[in-house]
Amino acid sequence: MENLLISKIFRDFAKILEIKGDNPFRVRAYERAAQNIENLTNAELNDFIQEGRLREIPGIGEDLASKIAEIAATGRLASYEDLKKTIPEGVLDLINIPSVGPRTARLLYEQLKVKSIADLENAIKKDRLRGIFGIKERTIQNIRKGLELVKKGRGRMLLSEAEDFARKYTGFLKEIPKIKKISAAGSLRRQKETVRDIDMLVISDSPGEIMDKFVKFSGVADILAKGKTKSSIRTEEGVQIDCRVLNENSFGAALLYFTGSKNFNIKIRQLAIKKGLKVNEYGVFRGNKFVCGRSEEEIFRALGMAYIPPELREDSGEIELACQFKLPSLIELKDLKGDLHVHSRWSDGNNSIMEMASSAKERGYSYIAITDHSQSLKVARGLSIADLKKKKAEIDRINKKIKGLSVLYGTEVDIDSQGRIDYPDKVLKGFDVVVAAIHGGFKQPREQLTRRLVRACQNKFVHIIAHPTGRLFGTREAYDIDMFEVLKTARETNTQLEINAFPQRLDLNDENSRKAKEMGVKLAINTDGHQVEQLDVIKFGISVARRGWLVKEDVINTLPLNKLLKTIKK
User: Fold this and answer.
1) What domain count does the chain have?
2) Which end of the chain is more exposed for a tag (fewer CB within 10 A), N or C?
3) Which range has the worst mean pLDDT, 22-31, 124-133, 269-278?
4) Cβ(42)–Cβ(2) below 8 Å
5) Are both 382 and 530 inside the same structural domain?
6) Residues 361 and 380 both lie in one domain
7) Looking at residue 349, what is its pLDDT?
């Protein structure tokens, strides 16, 4: 049972009770219980549940123990569902706004009938908060800033979701005979981890026909704008897609301009001015004379610089290096020779080892590490030591059958609250690949979380730290660690860090990947796949690596197997 689910229910329970003005001791009881459960690993919590020892957890009495058992058994809590019905649905959302606590939410509801974020925005716009007892001017300003932060995070989708939408609408456009070329632009083309809107550029001599058909595609909910060469629609899922039709001479210039980023474009324009040129979305000009614009490559040449891959266009030093023709040759998908973090049916995967191995071979890999969960992670059916022997025997049999691919005997071990690993050394030394990860206690102090990762790096049998910051988009923020200290220890101990390519993770992110490279820490790009289809998400890990300036030599699973095993040995 995921400890975060239980702690979230208890925290929300406490918030609703506080909004309703319930007994403060009861409110604190739920808050304390939530905190203590968060500080347990999933494995520790499951031991308490399965062994009937929940009341041994500080702050857990008979009532809360029965509630935990109910959530563990059903995934929900009936009394919590009933309690939620006693307040308007949107009131609980107010508490997620920085500076709006339960007390303020209650004041807003009781005195202004504010039942949602939209109600609160309207109340602030009409200056209705001023004068309410207990809400000061500074509080109003903080709430306004909090609303902006919430709005800023709305409407963004995962990179993988954006690619799905772009692929769908590109498919529609390709069915139109008069389209010569299509490309996505914007943050999607730069492969940002989240994307707000999708920009599509098209070459066609019949823009009117393209616009007419674009706004009538299947799945269009609203037509936001329709013009002669540009139209915007909103899909049934709420995604905005803009389509622009261009002529061939301007396509490269428009692609450069609409790919961005904003700071990158500003720097490019400044560089052009120094060379007596002007760059805009229509082309490169010397005075009023058109110089070029059909492709990005010819524009970069005209500016006297190397082509800059879209993933690097963030004004973080790439323009200066391009002017010196010293940009790195970024890693590509074809460079990978294997995946070092996948799961099978032996723990919580959906496919057998043979199925995962066959799928890896189809993708051109030469090795794959089957890293099922370790014994303490019972929620993921972690393997006992006895099970490990059976799994190893199966891997040995498969390696005799399958040709052209090596199946590595691996594990994903749990890093406990003290940084210890949950298999003894005599077991760990038998694995080809040991991946270690934190699976609970994400809200522990920065020093403790850092210490856990540092100690795991110092274990002579741990090769890779998986999803090092623990973030899950839309569910969990990255936990607070001293990244410099973790990277320093990783370098000193020859421990690799992972870029987890799973779309909800992308962890390490591009910024931390670049820090790792600069500090001399090698990385592994893995999928954390739990079924054969998920091996395809490796491309998103490549996107992170490219945004992090990584080259082939920075990533261990670009190595042939014999060199890989020598490289990771401590």
Assistant:
1) 4
2) C
3) 124-133
4) yes
5) yes
6) yes
7) 87
DSSP 450: H
CATH number where 385 lies: 3.20.20.140
Q: What are phi and psi of 475, to 5 degrees?
A: -125, -45
Instruction: Give the whole-angstrom CA distance, residue 459 versus residue 286.
Output: 62
Specify whether 339 is located in the same domain as 278: no
Alpha-carbon distances, residue 24 vs 20, 80, 91, 152, 533 (angstroms):
11, 17, 19, 33, 49
Structure confidence by residue, pLDDT tens digits, 414-455: 999 999 999 999 999 999 999 999 998 887 999 999 999 999
State whether 193 and 316 are in the same domain. no
Q: What is the pLDDT of residue 155?
A: 62
Question: Cis bond leading into 261, ω under 30°?
Answer: yes
Q: In this structure, are 125 and 223 located in the same domain?
A: no
DSSP structure class, residue 250: G
Residues 413 and 309 in one domain: no
Report pLDDT digits (tens) over 507-547. Answer: 999 999 999 999 999 999 999 998 888 899 999 999 999 99
CATH number of the domain at 178, please.
3.30.460.10
Asked whether the beta carbons of 312 and 267 are under 8 A apart, the reply is no
Per the listing, tokens 């990771």 go with: 568
Q: What is the CA radius of gyration of the chain?
A: 27
Q: Which domain holds residue 376?
A: 333-568
* Same domain, yes or no: 122 and 201: no
Is residue 414 within 8 Å of residue 41, measured between CB atoms? yes
546 vs 376: CA distance, rounded Å:
35
Q: Which residues of 188-227 are buried (b: 16+ CB within 10 A; e: fewer)?
A: bbbbbbbbbbbbbbbbbeebeebbebbbebeebeeeeeee
Contact between 305 and 322 under an 8 Å Cβ cutoff? The reply is yes
CA–CA separation, 369 vs 343, rounded Å?
Answer: 9
Q: Tell me whether residue 14 is in a domain.
A: yes
**In this structure, are 409 and 462 located in the same domain?**
yes
SS3 category, 98: coil
Vertex 113, ends 109 and 116: CA angle to 5°?
75
CA distance 129 to 97: 15
Last residue of a domain, one of 323, 348, 363: 323
DSSP secondary-structure letter at 341? E
